[in-house]
Every structure is written in structure tokens, then in C-alpha cells.
Amino acid sequence: MRVVIAGAGAVGRSIAGELLENGHEVLLIDNDPDAVAVRRVPEAEWLLADAAEIATLDEAALERCQVVIAASGDDKVNLVVSLLAKTEYGVPRVVARVNNPKNEWLFNDAWGVDVAVSTPRLMSALVEEAVSVGDLVRLLRFSQGEANLVELTLPQGAALVGTRVGEVAWPQDTALVTIIRGVKVLIPDPDDALAAGDELLFVAAPAREAQLQALLSPRPVKE
């Protein structure tokens, strides 16, 4: 898979390193000569240019890319890169970094963004996930399709503890994608029984999140 990353700072280089280790072809673009540190990611292609310019994206051959990642520290640049990648080059998958949470509402399919990643939001979500059991935590927003990746740790006393996955009437527009049980990552099977302490990851429509949390909440205590 060919991936172009706009923004060769610490975030962009880290993503590039991961993708290269997994056998993908990566091109990093940045207009800051200090950021174009080829020695740090020598396996990648590098381009010293402004990623928000059509001429640069032509040179990068975006039409041959399967994924574009707008990972600069400037939200305006990331939006422009996303829009150009989707509308001018038809890139199938566009992932954009949101630096300022106040701008998150802009990162949607109208700007060509398929997946918006807000680092501050993700960090706060991970903190919430570490301290709360039974609360639904949004980890990631998929702009296209209006869905979120959400996590909920099944609490003791939840009605679904011991219930098989295939027997649960999940809310509409909701899919259980992973069960994390201790150190194991499980692909949900209809015969798997849910256990207290399971971390459940769902892709869910925002309108279904309240139903999902209610379904997985502890039984009310009878007085």
C-alpha cells in the first residue's frame, strides 16, 4: 500500500516508521528543511515542499495512493490537504490529525476527511478509560458514515455478564468489533460469553451510544 504523509514532525515520522515496518511504501512531505530529516526515517521517500499546493501533490503522485495522512501541526493545512486528496485525486482513505479540539467539527466528509484523530481528545479518552468502568468512552470519530469507535468496560453486576455474544440484541447501527480480556484480544464469536471486566470495542452511530451504555450498565439495585 502506498501512503503519503503530509507533515514530517514527530507525529508524521512515528506513523511512517510503523507503516514501513508493516511493509508499506511511504512518502513524507514537509516544507520545513529542519523537519526533512532523512536519516531518521531512511526507508521512506521524502519531499521538501508545501503539501497544500497542487504542484506538490502532483509531484507526490497522489493518484497512486491508497491512503493520505494529513499529520501536520496546522489544522488549516490538514484540511486543505484532505480536501485536495479526496476531490482532486480520489484518494480512497484520508486520515487527518486535529490539533485544536475546537476545530474538530470541520473535519468531516465535506472536507474529504474519512477519519479524524484528535490527539487531545484521544488522550483524555484514554485517561477516562483508565479510571472508569461502565462508562462509554469515545476513542475515535469516523467522519464518513457518522460513526464512532467507542469502548466500554463491562462492570460487575451488568445484566449481560455470562450472556453469549450471539444472544445479545445489540442496538441498530452498532457492531461489536473486539473483546479485550486481560492480555488477550478476541474476535467476537457468537458463542463467546461476556465476562465482567471485558473491554468491549464497538463501532456505533452516535445516536445509539446511550442505548448501548444502558444495555451494558449494571442491574439497578432493588431497595
UniProtKB/TrEMBL annotation:
Q: Name one Pfam family in it.
A: TrkA_N
**Descriptive protein name:** Trk system potassium uptake protein TrkA
Which residue range or ranges hold the RCK N-terminal domain? 1-117
Q: Which UniProt keywords apply?
A: Ion transport, NAD, Potassium, Potassium transport, Transport
- Give the Gene3D superfamilies listed for this entry: NAD(P)-binding Rossmann-like Domain, Regulator of K+ conductance, C-terminal domain
This protein's record includes keyword Lipoprotein: no
Q: Which residues form the RCK C-terminal domain?
A: 137-218
